[in-house]
Amino acid sequence: MKKTKVLSMILAIVMMTVGCQEITENNTAKEDSKSAISSENIQLTMVKPETINPIMNQDKSVGYIMNLIYDGLFTIDENYDIVPQMAEEYGLSEDGMSVSIKLKDAKWHDGSEVTAQDVQFSVNLIQNNASSPYNLLAQKISSVSVINNKELTIRFKEKYAFSVDTLIFPIVSKSQLSSSGDINSQQKNLIGNGPYKIDRYEQRSGMILSVNEEYYEELPKTIRNIDVSIVPDEEAQVSMVMALQSDITNISLKDLSKFQEKEFNITTYESRDYESIIFNYDNEFLKDINFRKAILHSINREFILEEGYMEDATLVNFPLNSKSKYYDSDLKPFAYNIEKAKSYLEKAKPVKSEGNEQSENTGAENTENKDIQSNNADNKSESENTNNEDSTKSNEESNKKPNSGLDKAEVKKMISELDLKIIVNKENSERLKTAYLVSNNLKAIGIKSTIVEMSSKEIDAAISEKQYDLAIVGWELSSVPDVRDIIASSGYTDEKLTNYMTSLVNATSENQIKDIYKSIQKHIRDNVAFISLVIRDDYIVTNKRLDGKILPNDFDVYEGISNLKIKNK
Question: Which segments show compositional bias classed as Polar residues (predicted)?
Answer without folding.
Answer: 356-389
